[in-house]
Amino acid sequence: MKRTLLLVAVLSASQAALAAGSADKGKTAFAKHGCWQCHGFAGQGGVAGPKLAPDPMPLEAMSAFVRNTRGGMPPYQKAILSDADLADIHAYLQSLPKARDYKSIPLLNP
Question: What is this structure's pTM?
Fold first, then answer.
């Protein structure tokens, strides 16, 4: 019984750590896996891909989409993009700051 509880606790902790991800590693993975080509270097969106940052969809939804997409984006299986890399990319997208309000930019408000 104690072993079972310990195993459950360890698995839960590792899942939480995986879900947290690393923004630094995510920035590298975002570039390595070519996400920037369609979504821009800051996840701002581009010609071929929608805006992903600074408020990405929840990790579970993002994972389901990335693994099963049938649109213009090819699906990324775990052998190509690991769950850890995906969690890191999500953390990177979450870490990106929101754009400044255009009203706070003097050149845009003569």
Answer: 0.75
